[in-house]
Amino acid sequence: MKTGSISYILVLPSLALMLFTTVYPIIGVLYYSLYSYNIVTGEFRFSGLNEYIELLRDPLFLTSIRNTVMFSIAATVLQTILGLIIAVLVNQRIRGKRYIIPILVLPNMFSVVVVSSMWKLMLDYETGLINHILKSLGFQPLPWLTSMDLALFSIVLIDTWQWTPICFLIFYAGLQSIPRELYEAAIVDGASSVRTFTSITLPMLKPYIALVLLLRSIDTFRLFDKVYLLTGGGPANSTETISLYIFKTGLVFWDIGKASAASFIMLILILAISALYIRRSILS
Amino acid sequence: MRILEKTLIYIALGIIIAWSLMPIYWTINVSLKTGLEVYEVFSTRFSIENYVRLFREDFQRYLISTIYLASLTTIISLALAIPASYSLSKLPLSDKLRRGFLVWTLFSRTMPPIVLIIPLYVMFSQLRISDNLTAVAIAYQVYTLPFSIWMLMGFYRETPREVEEAAMVDGAGPLAIMTRILVPMIMPGIVVTAIFSILMSWNEFLYAVILLQSLKNYTVSLIIASYISEWGVKWGEMAAAGIVSSLPMLLFTAYVQKYMVLGFMRRD
Question: Are B249 and A111 within 8 A, CB to CB?
Answer without folding.
Answer: yes
